[in-house]
């Protein structure tokens, strides 16, 4: 395999039966968080590759029933786990439709006690259901309109900076999410991250955008296209439409190319400009390492800046939050100045549940924290 896809010799040391020591090439503070990510699942040596057929794990529940695209039934295993046994005897997951509207219909009619993800358009319906709580989650989920720096015209930093100079992030929370969420700053580090460095937000500047376009050889304007697959909802397309309106006064004509999810995921890493949804990461350094280091599999911008990587290396090595925040100033500034993306808004997340579902803990990663959850339905329900 290529560099980064195979383990370095000596990277792992088995100390004893229950202890593993990692020998890293660089200090990396996010090791615990990386181990909890969905793409780093650790399974038993006898795992056969199919969770439904061979659900061999260490959790407090076992997979009792599974029908692809229909349902999954978990039953409490009774085996010792990391803490007290959970209160729920069983957890039932159902897919009662492909859209949020269909899932909300199941909720309204009492078929389910909870819908784990709803959109802004469903809030009014959720608010109308008696004995219901809507949980809003602040997270680092976002949409990134990234420009691939190896593809014309985005291989010219003047063009990228011109595009970015047209954007007013303050408009997006209201127009896309009905006043929820928060404006972003084109560097993919969120205010909820512990090491976020608060700096002045870039301002919309059409005069600067026109000058940059002229210097880049486009005095009469520029035609560009952005691909969007609405892979996580139509809010992604809304962002592109607002961008189209904001770019127009500078003479940049943006065509929004809406495609299917499968089409977008087939080309998301190669399209010259695309709107990609990125999920929450608990540390600001994590997504930067996944998305913007040279050669990493998810580097959709083809970004390659040794100065940025050295600054990120330093930030990743600092356990002290205050020290790391100071180091992140340079990291965030480099990303902004290289203008590899338009990242205007942090996306809010919502889920809805009946009031008799107790002790739900909203999680920004939208993991299901059911350790202490109990269900106490009224006698007449």
Describe this structure in words.
The chain is an alpha+beta fold and 381 residues long. Helices cover 27% and strands 21% of the residues. The chain is built from eleven helices and 17 strands. The strands form six sheets. Strands 11-10-12-8-13 form a five-stranded mixed sheet. Strands 3-4-5 form a three-stranded antiparallel sheet, with no helix packed on it. Strands 6-15-7 form a three-stranded antiparallel sheet. Strand 10 (222-228), helix 7 (235-247) and strand 11 (252-258) form a beta-alpha-beta unit. It is globular, with a radius of gyration of 23 Å. The N and C termini lie far apart (58 Å).
Please provide a brief summary of the model.
With 381 residues, the protein is an alpha+beta fold. 27% of the residues lie in helices and 21% in strands.
